[in-house]
Design a protein that fits this description.
The protein is an alpha/beta fold and about 280 residues long. The chain folds into 2 domains: about 5-195, Spore Coat Polysaccharide Biosynthesis Protein SpsA, Chain A; about 205-280, no CATH class. It has 10 helices and 9 strands. The protein has helices at about 15-25, 45-55, 75-85, 105-115, 155-160, 170-180, 210-220, 225-235, 240-255, 265-280; strands at about 5-10, 30-40, 60-65, 90-95, 100, 120-130, 135-140, 150-155, 185-195. Strands 1, 2, 3, 4, 5, 6, 7, 8 and 9 form a 9-stranded mixed β-sheet that branches. β1 (about 5-10), α1 (about 15-25) and β2 form a beta-alpha-beta unit. α8 (about 225-235) packs antiparallel against α9 (about 240-255). The longest helix has 19 residues, at about 265-280. It is globular, with a radius of gyration of 19 Å.
Length: about 280
């Protein structure tokens, strides 16, 4: 199968080479790779140039944006700019972070999913990060039917149906909700383990703390579901402040009449889906 990869990269000199080496070592190589050098001030561009010289399917795109590492907006802006350089003649498209090590069979396994399952819309493996003892362990903060935003693969038809990726915090939740709204499945593959070299959120700006609650408002969660989801998140992270930040972000977004990310009928589907999940966990 034919697949394209877009990699947003901002000051990734410590990780990018390992990511690209694992990408060009795949048993099924991508047809095109766009690396978006997003306002890097370190050695990122030199690393990209090293790979573009030897790999004709890799292209560099230099772009300028804010130096603030805000979750959602910065990375999706960069992804969108890279996507604009590609045609639509792919079987699946991949948004890939620049701080990962992929197993060599990663994309051949993903291709098999899309080739054998016409309803597969999103596919991916699982994140492993080093613990304090230096051991690689599963770090998948959501349910096991969720594909982390760091390595999401979308079928061509699904990507078009959901309208691409939303430029907001929560883009890697709303994409899967819309995937299901349009009748596609989210597929996760046990045993397809990706090494994440930098813990999630380490580079995020402190201004981002209320964006999760804002995203819940924009996805039409409603206050009760936001309350439940925020409690669950705070408990899982063992951070009480995360609960209050979420609620404050939600209420501020409502007060400011922030535009929604999804249409009312999509929002109704999302709320029904969320209530179904909540009831399943309770009963």
């Amino acid at each position: 199968m034919k697949y394209y990869v877009v990699i947003p990269a901002h000051n990734e000199q410590d990780f990018l080479e390992g990511t690209l080496q694992s990408l060009i070592s795949q048993t099924l190589l991508p047809k095109k790779v766009i690396i978006v050098n997003d306002n890097s001030t370190d050695n990122t561009e030199a690393i990209i140039d090293k790979f573009t010289t030897n790999c004709p399917f890799i292209t560099k795109l230099n772009t300028t944006s804010s130096t603030e590492h805000m979750p959602g907006s910065k990375v999706i802006n960069a992804f969108t700019k890279g996507l604009a350089l590609l045609d639509e003649e792919y079987d699946f498209i991949v948004k890939l972070d620049a701080d990962l090590i992929l197993p060599t069979n990663y994309f051949s396994e993903i291709a098999t999913v899309f080739k054998t399952n016409s309803t597969a819309g999103v596919a991916g493996g699982f994140v492993f990060e080093k613990n304090k003892l230096g051991e690689w362990q599963l770090n998948h903060p959501m349910h096991k039917k969720h594909v982390r935003g760091a390595f999401k693969a979308y079928s061509n038809t699904c990507f078009k149906a959901i309208g691409g990726l939303k430029n907001a915090m929560g883009w890697d939740t709303v994409d899967e909700l819309l995937t299901q709204y349009h009748g596609f499945e989210v597929i996760t593959l046990d045993g397809l383990n990706v090494k994440h070299l930098r813990p999630t959120g380490d580079a995020y700006n402190k201004k981002a703390k209320q964006l999760q609650g804002k995203a819940m408002y924009q996805m039409h969660y409603g206050f009760i579901i936001t309350l439940i989801a925020s409690l669950k998140m705070a408990f899982k992270q063992q951070k009480l402040n995360a609960f209050f930040d979420n609620i404050k972000g939600y209420l501020n977004a409502k007060k400011q009449k922030t535009p929604f990310l999804v249409a009312p009928e999509e929002g109704q589907f999302i709320r029904n889906l969320r209530w179904k999940g909540i009831k399943k966990q309770l009963f």
